[in-house]
Amino acid sequence: MAQLIADKRDIDFVLHEQLEVGTEYKGGSYAEFNRKTIDMIIGEARNLGIKEMLPLQKVGDDGCTFDAGTVTVPEGFKHVYDLYCEGEWLAMSDDPDWGGQGLPHAVSMAANEYFYGSCNAFMLYNMLSHGAAKLIESYGTEAQKKQVLKKMFSGQWSGTMLLTEPEAGSDVGALTTVATKNGDGTYSISGSKIFISGGEQNMVENIIHPVLARLEDAPAGTRGISLFMVPKYRINEDGSLGEFNDVVCTGIEEKMGLHGNCTCSLTLGGKGQCIGTLLGEENKGMAAMFQMMNEARQMVGLQGFACATASYIHALNYARERVQTKGLTDPAGSTPVSIINHPDVKRQLLIMKSYVDGMRSLIYFGGLCHDKIAMSEDADERSQYSLLLEVLTPIIKGYITDKAFEVCSHGIQVYGGYGYVEEFPVAQLLRDSRIFMIYEGTNGIQSMDLLGRKLGMKKGKPFMDFLETIHRTIDKAKEVPEVAPLAESLQAFFTRYTEVTAAISKAAMSDKVLDAYAYSHPLLEVTGDLTMAWMLLWRATVAAPLVDKKKKDAAFYKGQITTARFFINTMLPSAMGKMDAIQTCDGAVTAMDDAGFGGK
Amino acid sequence: MAQLIADKRDIDFVLHEQLEVGTEYKGGSYAEFNRKTIDMIIGEARNLGIKEMLPLQKVGDDGCTFDAGTVTVPEGFKHVYDLYCEGEWLAMSDDPDWGGQGLPHAVSMAANEYFYGSCNAFMLYNMLSHGAAKLIESYGTEAQKKQVLKKMFSGQWSGTMLLTEPEAGSDVGALTTVATKNGDGTYSISGSKIFISGGEQNMVENIIHPVLARLEDAPAGTRGISLFMVPKYRINEDGSLGEFNDVVCTGIEEKMGLHGNCTCSLTLGGKGQCIGTLLGEENKGMAAMFQMMNEARQMVGLQGFACATASYIHALNYARERVQTKGLTDPAGSTPVSIINHPDVKRQLLIMKSYVDGMRSLIYFGGLCHDKIAMSEDADERSQYSLLLEVLTPIIKGYITDKAFEVCSHGIQVYGGYGYVEEFPVAQLLRDSRIFMIYEGTNGIQSMDLLGRKLGMKKGKPFMDFLETIHRTIDKAKEVPEVAPLAESLQAFFTRYTEVTAAISKAAMSDKVLDAYAYSHPLLEVTGDLTMAWMLLWRATVAAPLVDKKKKDAAFYKGQITTARFFINTMLPSAMGKMDAIQTCDGAVTAMDDAGFGGK
User: Fold this and answer.
1) Which residues does the UniProt record annotate as the domain Acetyl-CoA dehydrogenase-like C-terminal (chains A, B) (predicted)?
2) Strand A157-159 relative to strand A178-181, pairing
């Protein structure tokens, strides 16, 4: 049967054959999760995703309704939200003490692939709720946690993230929302925030807003930002809802996509009646927000990936069904063939597959790193995986969302004219996916994070560990005859990459700093290419010995090898050339005067 | 004053300094067009575009209305259509005997840049009308021409192009619409067509549909296709409108963009009352349609370019105004700067500018080739420029529209979160531009045209001429000290390109044909990159000596050199790597089995 949204066989492959999560979990705190239980969980997620969430995708595209401060989500969202909460999916990997299900993170990534792939706009509500709850779990007092956490993890209340203001986007430090001490331990909040996903909506009783604001006497910039917990309705001692807390939605944005998720403008304390409590320490709001943001960035990578995998599966099914034009090598007059047989269509499907496969492996691997942290009793090991995740974060967020958009564009191209028609699903996936390159830190910011922070962090040790992890895969692949030539090619790429990163790191700390940062995004691109090639080679190395062993799946395993071959031999050479440009680090961008851009 | 839509100074530069059209036109049939008259014409187009058409862009996005067979275009379209027709813009470069204005084509490209950049959806009606009229001018009998041509060139009647059917998209030969001889020289037409831009609309009295159909006894495939002229209303002897001709609009598509232009489904002869006349010869419809299509493909390139230039100018204006974050090399605590000063934003603007500049030069150069054909009295010269245009067509259509979409995506990225909000203009430009990669032959088909036809056409002579034309620019540049190093870099790229095209041409005629065609699109990409670099180097070579001579414009001229430097040193190295992949021509795409793609 044709798959919808995501490829079940490949999900199984990554979890059980590439990452061998069953082995990883043995004997530890996740020991109860064996192949059978994991498959059952993912099967349930698949059912909920395809049966309930997928139908929301189209209706969600008609958007939310704003009327006099209230926002109504699209028809059907509330019903599926209730099912989602009943299934306890919102906090599937969280602490059972707070109502979480305690599932391994790698497994939750697979479940989320079905959920987000079915309807990203719907899932974004839950993603923000979860992020807000995690922030409170990490930084809240015991009282704050008791007040809200179980209700948030259960989905009874939702959560958001109030960061952006009209004049403070990427420049968070420029925000002007003010918090005034009331003397009773609470703060009065006053300001306006924009771009708040799910900032107001009608699926929940109450909304908990973590808000970045500035104490009146705070230092300028990011060092003067504090974090507050601000509910939509105040919360009485007994947990019941109190008065309206003067958080007013003033409008929602008309966007290019993701219409099912309302993007709200909120005014806090317009009538002087908005009360919040401090989350964490005064003036330490940025650090807290960054913790949330790091997790959010990994989830945005998953959002992009989910669009990409859905677009790939749609395009694949279409290319198998759509018959058009005879084959290129067929004698004249023979019958037309499915377009998957035309080289340029097949090439595009292989581009899509190579990215989607690489993304899936990378995202699940990220989940496994979280699991290692959760399972390990060794502080060094926990730190090591935590730092590896930090290195991976700009790749997961920046590279994956860039490439997801490209994959979705190929999805349209494979459909031809039908791809441009909204009756078919691929146009919406492209529109939905475009925001992932922007929110939670634009991909330009991700690239600066990689170059300016992750490369040199802790004297470069975590980055070196990242490279070593990749190199272990290359070494293993060299010993498997079917993939050894690919390993050699990737080895050459890897060697060049280490030279180039050394050169650009050096440039970034010299008086060529502006020139170097003009190559931060190209650096992110080739880093992502290396990461994809690593994952695809790893897959091929696992698959190669199984081609003859498991006859039933021979085509699948051979496909793994061919995909790695395609990516390494056809896609990587461009990246190799790009590394030449990075190494040269030509100063044209710096040299360009404002007036040289014209337009005046 | 900040420019909107297009850069006036750069338009002047290309026409008068790079292409020197005044000199080209001297003494010939375009001799009356000197700099003053040309500027006046473009100034008028600019006024009409910015004052009248630009406001249509937003309202057009709300779409057309379909009701019981009629289509109503968006509010305001009819008023501007009348102004456009009054200005006699529809046939600005056409034969005055048929109501044309006889303007040089290069000049009309500049006028069209303003028109299409202001509102592509509006202009698409006119583009199709013009294409249909040209087809009738070329293939119609004197009687057919007298019947419709002046009314079409004046815009009193519109025209379309009825090609696609549900089962015949890229595979035109699969179409099933039937034409039956009536014995009186007319034909009864019966069939259903889809994806007809402007197939039904309320701005004109009558619509003339060129229709591809099959005579009852025609051979199978493309060799059995004939072209017919089918009016919406029959035309009486005296030119007045007769009975409704049974061409019924059954619906319009809901698309991702270009909403202001209705995409219609038409049923012809549902009641047996659709009468047409033959255009050209029986079973020779494809050749005629290809003539129209070649011109249409060049215009689609212009459509893409117009979106790109508009997005670039919007992003540039925004980046100059939007203040966010202090500069990277500023001491801590200093004030924030316009985002154009941040390296990654500046890099993106430079990517946008280099493509937009290169596209403008290429498209105007294409116009100049048309002018050379119109002016020349030497058949060999006419043939030479005509063949050069044939080589350029897949690049103009395929490469430009691919890159226009990328440019529009950068436009969104420069705007950050605001780019995703439809209140700002860049999201729509991205949505509008996505179709250009598909219609008038997908870009995959363009790449096959380049590899399979244009490279080897007439024993490769036209392609060699194309390369020689480029090489003359490189040779000139070598003699200008400021750009000589760039010329050397492009020379290396050029040399590699000739090797690679030789290799892939050979492969395409061997038993590696499927492998070769899996690289047809990468070949189109590097061919386009070479063409962009050619144009940018040409610009820089013209600009270099003027930096010191024309002080007022020094920044503009320096900008030309820096843009060429950026493209050649930063963008071309990736393309150099891509050529390695093309040369290797790895067979992974061919080797991939259907089952290897998974999804089942």
Assistant:
1) 466-593
2) unpaired
